[in-house]
Amino acid sequence: MSSVVPTRTTDPSKVHPSPPLTPPSTLKNIKMTKEEEPADMNIPDNYVAWTLKNQKPLPPVSWNNWWKELNYLSLSILTITPSIALWGAFHVKLRWETAIWSVFYYFVTGLGITAGYHRLWAHRSYNASKTLKYMLATAGAGAVEGSIKWWSRGHRAHHRYTDTELDPYNAHMGFWWSHIGWMIVKPRRKPGVADVSDLSRDEVVRWQHRWYLHLIIGMGFLLPMAVAGLGWGDWAGGFFFAGAARLCFVHHSTFCVNSLAHWLGETPFDDKHTPRDHVITALVTVGEGYHNFHHQFPMDYRNAIKWYQYDPTKWFIWTMSQFGLASHLKVFPDNEVRKGQLAMQLKRLRETQEGLSFAPEGNELPVISWESFREQSAKRSLVVIGGFIHDVSAFMDEHPGGRHLVAKMVGKDATTAFFGGVYDHSNAAHNWLSMMRVGALHGGTQHGLDDKSVPPSQRLRIARYNEIGSGNASSTAWSDSEGLLG
Ligand SMILES: [Zn+2]
Ligand SMILES: [Zn+2]
């Protein structure tokens, strides 16, 4: 970088006034309680590397210690619930009213997690009215996945440290670890720091935290039982199907966002990390299956951006906004979304390009004079087209128009004949011809004949930024002569 102080030559009256910078001390002046202070306020710049180096992980789980390393509360919930559901499946008759109610209640509690815990609280992707917040916090409790605050804290760490040891559901630890292992076995490391002070200030989050045990019993089992019991006299079905079996499905539906969504599908927006897009994941997770998009644009209220993709959570949030219960639905600028898509498309095209052979350029070939060309064409079948010398010996019998038309041009310039004089050859023919290049004719081609010297398949190429040349180098980059930096 230059050490010369840039001089301003622009008339100061024409320079756009820039807003004054916020003094860095402002944040410190706000009185914050311990609870309100962002957890990541004072972390070092090299936090991730520092933590991985200095914070000792728990010892690896082995045959000698595994029973001490289990999280028995999660283990109980995650084994007893499916056991109850299985017992019910074999001993209790499933009535159709209960079946419909169970599926409906699966979506109610599922949306509590996806539209509430995930998109509202963990990502702040829209604003919800107090009524909607209470509804989502209550419905979400029925999914029995921990309180909003605990859940969002882990999820924010997952986004911030994706695929690292500080990601609580690190997909590099394997499918089953990210699905359920991280809850059953005590994690070897604490999740990386993630701030949830905004949630500590949210009265609905605090209310749910306070009443969490009551809420999970009420919403997890009592309500689904009571609806089926009081509605059509099926108390047992309400307990086993709308309660236990439904809970089991909601659990694994959410877990799939951490496992399946990091394992199955495509990476249309970025392939730096494991998140992927797949319709199957979307179907089993109430629309959270477009996870590659979600990790790139986490504050977008959508997961699926195309109208036909399955994202009932997005439809729900949009519908709530139509009723005035949700507002400020965040959408990333389409320009940025499409840039991500383009980058990935170009990357794939580049791979295709690298798998193909292209004709040598003029500077990669020997330059041959007209006399030498004439001389050598007496020994082998050489033809000049578009300033290049081609060896057509092996091709003559393959020529769709017949051998004689090629043979009569040996030792001659067939440019005019090739480009329409005798036959207006296809782009494919031009591409193939270029593969027979053996030399460049001295003097080259006349200007304006690029379409005859550059084969169609080589007119548009995918190039990396460092192959394009002086792209980023600009001698005026540091001068700021227009005063644009204020
Ligand atoms: Zn993820
Ligand atoms: Zn997320």
TrEMBL record:
Q: Where in the cell is it found?
A: Membrane
> Which superkingdom heads the taxonomic lineage of this protein's source?
Eukaryota
Looking at the UniProt record for this protein, which Gene Ontology cellular component terms does it annotate, in alphabetical order? endoplasmic reticulum membrane
> Which coarse location class describes where this protein primarily resides?
membrane
Matching entries from Pfam families are given as:
Cyt-b5 (PF00173), FA_desaturase (PF00487)
Function of this protein? Stearoyl-CoA desaturase that utilizes O(2) and electrons from reduced cytochrome b5 to introduce the first double bond into saturated fatty acyl-CoA substrates.
Q: Where are the transmembrane segments?
A: 72-92, 99-120, 211-232
This protein is called what?
Acyl-CoA desaturase
Q: Which UniProt keywords apply?
A: Electron transport, Fatty acid biosynthesis, Fatty acid metabolism, Heme, Iron, Lipid biosynthesis, Lipid metabolism, Membrane, Metal-binding, Oxidoreductase, Transmembrane, Transmembrane helix, Transport
User: What terms describe the molecular function in GO for this protein?
Assistant: heme binding; iron ion binding; stearoyl-CoA 9-desaturase activity
Recite the UniProt cofactor note for this protein.
Answer: Expected to bind 2 Fe(2+) ions per subunit.
Write down the EC number: 1.14.19.1
